[in-house]
Amino acid sequence: GRWVNPNSPLQVKQYFYIEKNIPPYTKFVKASQKSIITTDDKTLQRIARGTSARKGLYEAKLMQNYRHLQKLKGTYLDIVFDKDSRMRCSYNPRGTKFGRLSSSKTVFGTGMNMQNLPEAFLGFLVADPNCIFIELDLRTAEWVIVAYDSGDANMINALETGIDVHAYTASQMFGIPVDVIKFEDKILGHTNDPEEITKKRPLIKQLDPYRDNWVPRTMSMRQCGKKSDHGLNYGEGKKKFALDNEITEKEAQVIVEFYHGIYPGIRRNYDRIQTQLGTDRTLTNCFGRKCRFLDRWNDDLFKSAYSFNPQSTVGEIVNRGMVSIYHSEDKALADWEILRQVHDSINFQSSNVNIKKIAAGIAIAASYLRPVLSTSGRQFTIAVDCKVGFSLDKMKEIKITDVETMSKDIERAISELKET
């Protein structure tokens, strides 16, 4: 072997595209309207994973890990803290096109963007002594709005029966029962290594009746359903889905068509939205907020329009809820401190001395995040999930029910967290 500098695009291109004879990967640059040869993170992931015709290259994974660790050090271990040793950020209320907040360093140059923290860093964020973290999260929020906005019967049925929507999506896509989908996901987890999946999948006896069914090569079926639920509602095609999930375009094409085959209402809704744009270029979200789309009439405009109602509505739910919680005079929320907002969730800190008070606070705060919404003549709400913990990397789920039941669940969660 020999040394290749992972930070040198020239050396990495030389090694993989010339010495290893791998067909170069490219990416499209909007500014220049041209495609360029790339060795970015997604490219290394695809080289490391391989294809159905080529084995993956482990050295690509090593380079990817090197870059990842270097970024962790430079971005997350060299942070400038405030004088009280806390990490803060600055929120920009006009940070995104559709009303969501964005975050960055403070005006004093301290802190950082706190909305895209990697899992490896969350363990460093711990609650104050005698305090506990609380997270309230809107469950599959954008997907819910897409379901009711499009009127797709299968999506609405999944929501109203309370089934695991990602497992349901996978079940419908691959023709395999939900319980088998969940069992396979438990065995495979979040691995995206095709060799590991190839070894483990044949050992799952529950899949024996379905060996002839098409299944994803690089992820569990539920993970594929989840990625489809998150990525295929706004006009995304096979190329971007393949790039985002490091799979071949051929595999992506199958998944895209499966997804829209089981949820045909999504594409019908595209037509409705385009018709509305053709009328006055104006769309309205679930809160009555309007947005005019004046960009060039093309696919980019349409994709932006498809995402407007779900993204702007979710942003508004979280922003309004956060303001209501902040201004609430309810005693159960008196010592709640808002720590950060992450698009469709909010993190808080509260004293953990009075468990019943925490449970009451969760019930009240969740109610602020659960307004009755209306779109396309249908009324609905979005469920709120809750977690508690002493560090952001180890949070226990708490089902939002009555105060007495939640109090017991929180006590149990705290006991389990202290043991670990």
From TrEMBL:
Keywords: DNA replication. Residues 123-354 form the DNA-directed DNA polymerase family A palm domain. One of its GO terms (biological process) is double-strand break repair. Pfam families: DNA_pol_A. GO terms for molecular function: DNA binding; DNA-directed DNA polymerase activity. InterPro entries: DNA-dir_DNA_pol_A_palm_dom (IPR001098), DNA/RNA_pol_sf (IPR043502), DNA_polymerase_A (IPR002298). This is DNA-directed DNA polymerase family A palm domain-containing protein. The lineage of its organism: unclassified sequences, metagenomes, ecological metagenomes.
